[in-house]
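Researcher: Here's the sequence for the chain we discussed earlier.
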Amino acid sequence: MEDRKEIRPEKPVNCKEDGPADGDKSMRQAERQREIEVSIRRKYHRELFSPFARAVRDYELVKANDRIAVCISGGKDSALMAKLFQELQRHNKVSFELVFLGMDPGYNEENRKRIESNAEILGIPLTIFETRIFDAVDHIDKSPCYLCARMRRGYLYNQAKSLGCNKIALGHHYDDVIETILMGMLYGGQMQTMMPKLHSIHFQGMELIRPMYLIREKDIKRWRDSNDLHFLQCACHFTETCTTIRTDGSSISKRMEVKNLIAELKKTNPSVEANIFRSAENVNLHTVIAYKKDGVKHSFLEDYDIPSL
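Model: Thanks. This is the structure I predict for it:
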């Protein structure tokens, strides 16, 4: 049986059982939380909340009576997503519920405390459940990160469903999307993208949504740094190698290689990022040799000799 621990913001300043020191701490905590939220509403409204709300609207990610598990990994992206969801809930005309869900796959004590501390700082009522995923993939030589991600996804779906949720929200952003497009082409020999929402295959009635889809990573970093926030980056057992460089100068991470490639291309083509993103929206099937739909491969030859109307 998995253990759950709920992390809630500290008690309000006017709690009678608080002493003077507790009251001062709560006051400072409340003020810092307010400053962080104001930065989203004002300073970074155009860069963060506007594209968040646009993705929710354009991709129809949130509907009436949804109960959404906002999945908190401990990193900057999911933490900001949680705050943006809280802001959306304040202003959205559609009624929906939020559950802030964190999974401990085997973090060390320091990383676990960092997640809990950030939840308190940000005012996120976080529910944490525990698994042993890190132990399970610790001795896997081939694609441990891929296996870890798949296992995490399954546990999150299962836990969210047990809490009465019909959706899980992940913090993938615009840069993740364009990097995934290029990675598929360069390393997978396929044209695909990271979709803004997906129906779960294995958990009937569940859906995955990505409301950070239109937010740039540089803007997330600016928000993080301006509020002096410190999140987990890579907290697994492979931390020492997941962003390091080999002695020959090559990167271990394929995603990092693609990120660096895009940065180089941008030096001579400032529109390269937007063009990569739009390429997944502007696919012309009449100029594609073959494509797959519902697991079936179709060739341009199937209707090549059919006269055009």
